[in-house]
Amino acid sequence: MVFSLSLVTVTIAALLASVSGQQLRLKVSGPAQVSDIADLTVTTTLINTGADKVTLIKEPSSALSSSPAHSFNLFHDSGSTPEFTGILYKYSLEKAAKNPETLVTLAPGASIEVSHSLAGTYNFTRSGSGSYNISPSTLFYIVNAEGTAEQVHAVLQNTHAVSFTPGSRLAVSPPAAARSIEQRGLSKRATYSSCSSTRQTQIAAAIPAAVSYVSESLSYLNAHTTTSTRVVTWFGTWSSSKRTTLVTQYTSLQATGSYTDWTYDCACTDGDSNTYAYVYPSQYGTINLCDAFWSAPTTGTDSKAGTLIHESTHFTKTAGTSDHAYGQTAAKALAISNPSHAVLNADSHEYFSENNPSLA
Ligand SMILES: [Zn+2]
């Protein structure tokens, strides 16, 4: 009897520990019909239905941010999906958890509404006019009792249906950065946009370090044809096909002119002090650098050179990675829980290449 009571106590404690996600409910609303993508703005509402207050991080790819990140799943009735044309970031949840400017606290019963313009973030040309189902990402990061970021999933209350009438405008022009890469032409060295001379010097020091990271990573993968701690730590269970994938990815990062003749843009109007950098995946060779980049060391964990590795893996033309997990702890956990995502996670490649602390 005493034994079964203590089991009940343990079960209740486990439930309390995971209550934070279950106490968040997410709704989405928007127009039922549009004829121009410019009119496709949806609103997400996150409600705290629990008895305790919750502190959340306004992470760019969550429904709490209006950033043009990949925050929605969109499906045409045919099953096809529009093309994602928005931004992928390197973001520090560790810094964000300590930065009051990027936190929002919801009291019990309170809610927060955010508008998201989907024009520019998604291009519906490929999937065409007709009906779409829109569902926001339910992933959020809360700040837990220890003061660190913790992943939770909200309960999704509904999805939203919208239809594009025949002849609708399904895409907007690409952003300005797309033009700068075309102007770059045949230049054989880095192009800097809106970067002070101090910043140009900092980037110029990070470039050869990133090039070295790529060649060292590739040499390592070519030399290690069986399981190794370094591969397993960042990418999960070893297999020869995984090694082949990694070799292909790193080979693509070693193309002529990689890093050395790319464009570095220091304007970063979308960033905050938790953001290192971002890219448009289709805009090969243009990296936008943000606040957190400038205070990072040249090499080592979450360094400038490592940030260049992270961003360069996002390009569709290279590895086409996403951001499934940010930070060393989460990246290590991802390698165990979802190794197929780990080989497509930008921070996992960054940490593999930075190799700090050094693994055999
Ligand atoms: Zn990223």
Automatic annotation (TrEMBL):
<keyword id="KW-0862">Zinc</keyword>
<feature type="signal peptide">
    <location>
        <begin position="1"/>
        <end position="21"/>
    </location>
</feature>
<dbReference type="GO" id="GO:0004222">
    <property type="term" value="F:metalloendopeptidase activity"/>
</dbReference>
<comment type="similarity">
    <text>Belongs to the peptidase M35 family.</text>
</comment>
<dbReference type="Pfam" id="PF14521">
    <property type="entry name" value="Aspzincin_M35"/>
</dbReference>
<feature type="domain" description="Lysine-specific metallo-endopeptidase">
    <location>
        <begin position="219"/>
        <end position="354"/>
    </location>
</feature>
<dbReference type="InterPro" id="IPR029463">
    <property type="entry name" value="Lys_MEP"/>
</dbReference>
<dbReference type="GO" id="GO:0006508">
    <property type="term" value="P:proteolysis"/>
</dbReference>
<dbReference type="InterPro" id="IPR050414">
    <property type="entry name" value="Fungal_M35_metalloproteases"/>
</dbReference>
<keyword id="KW-0732">Signal</keyword>
<keyword id="KW-0645">Protease</keyword>
<keyword id="KW-0479">Metal-binding</keyword>
<dbReference type="GO" id="GO:0046872">
    <property type="term" value="F:metal ion binding"/>
</dbReference>
<keyword id="KW-0482">Metalloprotease</keyword>
<keyword id="KW-0378">Hydrolase</keyword>
<dbReference type="InterPro" id="IPR024079">
    <property type="entry name" value="MetalloPept_cat_dom_sf"/>
</dbReference>
<protein>
    <recommendedName>
        <fullName>Lysine-specific metallo-endopeptidase domain-containing protein</fullName>
    </recommendedName>
</protein>
